[in-house]
């Protein structure tokens, strides 16, 4: 695995966030581009621009657990809660304080932001965000006209930022580029730092996004962490992996379900068995995951190991129907880790199965070539130690979510602002989401 640049990973995340709210596709990239263009006019140094880029691409991550509607983002009805949720995600992941606070303040008006350095930078993202929303409106009058409209809102935006934006409006190259998302991304890629992320930073950023994935539904609140720890422990037990491959399969486990961001919440949280049509929709998450992971330079093994976790040795899996040698061993390990975690973890609609009962189900699947026989046997041979690794990983993830809940509370608010409703599964029906 070649470690990607921070920008490559952020671009991947922005694409993934876009599929949560398709009506705003490209929004995160365009806000980042507009923010960086203004920062260039303002003469900000490289470090500030890099942090601004990170915060701008991640500015709406709080909308995933909030289930914020597109209209809320457009009309700023619900700006406070999703800003605070996004700040909590970044803070829990250990991102720099400046980035966390810019996300927190990306809807803070200038008259409230002017006395705080991070809030001032958040106000720059706020200006870029509002301009992009206006430009996307059906009755937009064009770049220059919308800039003039924003420049009249001096109580909301810093005068220096409005001046920088006004200067952009007079640049023909910039106004032409403003309507082309891919062109914007190319520009950002050219000015972004070229060095790859350190392994520690890679895990930190991927850990952040695994939390975002799992927060999509309370049914799977710590699932990605459980799969990552199980897959790494099982791969290590096989004796077939070096340190780099162990790190790679851990990252693949954290991101294996990223395609679920494209699945409607009402299907993920349906309190009964899924219909055939709903099951087809949820199965698409594997294909979407392959597409998303395949867009990150250096992530070929992450794509194949994480994105193929629903393939089966007998060729009955999805999305590609792989079998035999075309189904790589690390992906087989991931499939075993995914099923083991899904069966043994607690979910709101049922308690986790005892390890022995889960192994019996998996041995039966192995006999039918629905799971790799050797990997199921290897799991059974060391199941206590591997299960302890899963429990520790999911325990830490649960602690992180508890911290998120605390951070998301406003003073005097008893419940987290982004807490999702929890349904009890109808036990008279088969919960096929157990191993989805």
TrEMBL record:
CDD domains the record matches: HDc (cd00077)
Domain HD-GYP: 198-395
InterPro entries assigned to the protein according to its UniProt record, in alphabetical order: HD/PDEase_dom, HD_domain, HD_GYP_dom
Name of this protein: HD domain-containing protein
């Amino acid at each position: 695995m070649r470690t990607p640049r921070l920008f490559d990973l952020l671009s991947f995340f922005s694409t993934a966030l876009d599929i949560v709210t398709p009506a705003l596709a490209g929004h995160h990239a365009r806000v980042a581009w507009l923010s960086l263009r203004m920062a260039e006019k303002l003469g900000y140094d490289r470090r500030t621009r890099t942090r601004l880029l990170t915060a701008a691409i991640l500015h709406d991550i709080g909308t995933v657990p909030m289930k914020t509607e597109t209209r809320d983002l457009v009309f700023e009805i619900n700006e406070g809660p999703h800003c605070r949720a996004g700040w909590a995600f970044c803070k829990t992941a250990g991102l720099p304080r400046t980035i966390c606070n810019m996300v927190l303040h990306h809807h803070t008006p200038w008259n409230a932001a002017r006395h705080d350095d991070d809030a001032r930078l958040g106000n720059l993202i706020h200006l870029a965000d509002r301009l992009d929303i206006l430009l996307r409106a059906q009755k937009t009058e064009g770049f220059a006209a919308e800039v003039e409209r924003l420049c009249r809102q001096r109580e909301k935006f810093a005068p220096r930022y409005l001046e920088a934006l006004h200067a952009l409006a007079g640049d023909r190259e910039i106004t032409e580029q403003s309507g082309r998302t891919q062109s914007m991304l190319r520009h950002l890629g050219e000015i972004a730092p070229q060095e790859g992320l350190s392994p520690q930073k890679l895990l930190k950023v991927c850990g952040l996004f695994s939390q975002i994935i799992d927060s999509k539904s309370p049914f799977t609140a710590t699932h990605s962490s459980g799969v990552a720890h199980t897959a790494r422990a099982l791969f290590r037990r096989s004796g077939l992996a070096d340190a780099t491959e162990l790190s790679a399969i851990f990252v693949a486990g954290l991101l294996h379900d990223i395609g679920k961001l494209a699945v409607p919440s009402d299907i993920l949280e349906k309190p009964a068995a899924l219909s055939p049509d709903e099951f087809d929709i949820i199965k698409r998450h594997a294909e979407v995951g392959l597409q998303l992971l395949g867009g990150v330079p250096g992530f070929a093994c992450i794509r194949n190991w994480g994105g193929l976790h629903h393939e089966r040795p007998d060729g009955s899996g999805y999305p590609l129907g792989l079998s035999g040698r075309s189904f790589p061993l690390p992906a087989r390990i991931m499939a075993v880790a995914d099923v083991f975690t899904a069966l043994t973890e607690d979910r709101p609609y049922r308690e986790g199965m005892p390890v022995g009962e889960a192994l019996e189900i998996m041995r039966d699947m192995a006999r039918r070539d629905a799971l790799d026989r050797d990997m199921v046997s290897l799991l059974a041979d060391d199941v206590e130690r591997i299960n302890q690794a899963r429990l520790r990983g999911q325990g830490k993830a649960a602690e992180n979510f508890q911290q998120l809940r605390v951070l998301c509370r406003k003073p005097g608010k008893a419940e987290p602002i982004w807490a999702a409703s929890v349904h009890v599964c109808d036990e008279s029906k088969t919960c096929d989401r157990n191993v989805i």
